[in-house]
Amino acid sequence: MNFAPPSSVPPVEASIQVRNLSYFFGRGDLRKQVLFDISLDLHPGQIVIMTGPSGSGKTTLLTLIGALRSATEGSLQVLGKELVGLGDRHLVEIRRNIGFIFQAHNLFESLTASQNVEMAVELTGNFRGKRQQAVDMLSHLGLAERADYKPAALSGGQKQRVAIARALVNQPQLILADEPTAALDKQSGRDVVTLMQHLAQERGCTILMVTHDNRILDVADRIINLVDGRLESDESPQQFVDSHAPKALDQKMFIM
Amino acid sequence: MKFPSLPRIPLAWYNLRHDRPRLLVAVAGVTFAVLLMFMNLGFLGALVSTTTNFYDQFNGDLFLISPQSLEISSTKAFPRQRLYQAAGIEGVQQAMPLYAEYALWKNPETSLSRALFVYAFNPSDPVFLMPELDTLEKRQALQQPNSAFIDRRSRPEFGPQTVGLETEADRRRITIVGQYDLGGGFAADGTLIMSDQNFRRYFAPQPLDQISLGLVLLEPGANPQRVKAALQEQLPADVEVYTKPEIIRKESQFWIQTTSIGFIFGLGVLVSFVVGTVIVYQILYTDIRDHLREYATLKAIGYSGGYLFKTVIQEAILLALMGYVPGLILALGLYELAYNATAGTLPMRMTLFRVIFVFTLTMLMCGLSGLISVRKAVTADPAEVFA
């Protein structure tokens, strides 16, 4: 099994390069376009938050970038590989270099926290050190004592952290997250995004996150807004807040 | 893709073990199916051996029988002349006649008559190997008119078997002068042995020069196959020659293939197989349905459909193994029980062939249900986990 070595992606090059990507659901008369002509570059070390009303195509775009669906129109390069037109078998290979964090933790109830993380390590072929690697990652997330607990014995936040450990244990260059904080309380949610921030800064990974959670918008380097399948805005968090927060307008009006 | 053979997480085992009650139900289901298969095959095997195990007590190396005879209880008589011809062939030491016929035996206590099977022979011939009949002296008692030995394994409905007891057979007085152990198989509920002279009395006008079966004893050192070939060549086509294993196989085949008995038990095995398949399918399907998100997640993080396929098939095989062992143990217990309950007349015995055969069927059964249910896991859409 071959991992695309990180060095094959020059740091200046975008880890995700989307050009004129369109996507359709269904076929024939029921064919419905959900993404329209999306072009986008994401660079290493960036945390990008994707927002937009539900049904705007956020999740579809995320699954396309994550090689979970096959794109047909346009161009979609992830970690230096063109995904458009790629077969299922190759898509599976691509996915191994991506860390996925889901809204639901999706852990195997029958496996302990450590074993759930080890399932990801086994994909790299590292059987000898898998336990150590898993426990290290769990410790990093403050779950050292919980490594041998099954999900049923863990709190919601702990389960989500196990899922994050599973996503991060192979040190992927790209992390895709779908509402990772939705099921968490304020403090756990903050811990999770702080951890992601560290990863982006220390390892230079690219993080693309779909969220509606306003509490965590501040960690983003960029916020992109998707409406009805079209990329509507791409701005810094400050710009985003300025343009979206009615309070700012009120203040200006008050001064006038 | 090749991994070094280091321990993987046995996901299949953990998944099965996680829900104990469901595992228990699944194993019980497989055990039940295995047990049913063993019992059906057990009855079939017992039938086959009861219909043929009396041959073990027949003192013959080769057997002469009419080609029109189906099995021992439905023989077509052939001329005794053939025995004299056989006796002249090199390697043959002795050729002895055996007569066989059904008679109505009256239970002296209830006065109810019931058919039992009668063997008759010349008491000077060593036709039977049972210890009660193996010397000329012991066979002397049969010389008395209207007397017979009765089979201890005859059904109790035939009444008491006390020596000296007098009752009626085919409306003629008969006295029990001895007992032996033989068993009548599925064709007869009881057996009787008498002398050829008494046979003549009970079954007149049947002449003694028409016989049911010829028993041939070989000289020490004679090659049975060679003598058999010589007999076949010299004798007319109204008799066929078989060695003991051959005639046993011929009669077994008769019962299995040309009566409904083989079909009934074969159907029983098939039904058990289907029941087991459905149970295992149900369990596996529910398991996959409950873990669909997790399976989809595995695909999302880079596991192939092949891995999920293997996991489900492993679960199926584990269920097969866990259900087979208790099924085998229970079957051994029930075989013993059936053997004792029928006082040994239904020889339910486990054979190595059957152990392997049912094991193979169990594997097939679980593998089949694995294959039917696995599609759902393999086609799990990894994009669903984001929905």
Automatic annotation (TrEMBL), chain A:
SUPFAM superfamilies xref list? P-loop containing nucleoside triphosphate hydrolases
Superkingdom of this protein's organism: Bacteria
Protein name in the entry = ABC transporter ATP-binding protein
Q: Which GO terms describe its molecular function?
A: ATP binding; ATP hydrolysis activity; transmembrane transporter activity
| InterPro entries documented for this protein | AAA+_ATPase, ABC_heterocyst_DevA, ABC_transporter-like_ATP-bd, ABC_transporter-like_CS, ABC_transpr_LolD-like, MacB-like_ATP-bd, P-loop_NTPase
Keyword list, A-Z: ATP-binding, Nucleotide-binding, Transport
Show the SMART domains listed in the entry.
AAA (SM00382)
Which NCBIfam families does UniProt cross-reference here? heterocyst_DevA
GO (cellular component) term, any one: membrane protein complex
Q: Which residues form the ABC transporter domain?
A: 16-253
- Provide an example Pfam family for this protein: ABC_tran
Record flagged with keyword Ligase: no
> Keyword Zinc-finger, does the record have it?
no
Automatic annotation (TrEMBL), chain B:
Domain named ABC3 transporter permease C-terminal is located at: 269-382
State which residue ranges cross the membrane. 23-48, 254-284, 316-339, 351-372
Q: Name one Pfam family in it.
A: MacB_PCD
The name of this protein is DevC protein
Its lineage reads: Bacteria, Bacillati, Cyanobacteriota, Cyanophyceae, Oculatellales
ATP-binding as a keyword of this entry, yes or no, is: no
Q: Which NCBIfam families match?
A: devC
Point out the signal peptide segment. none
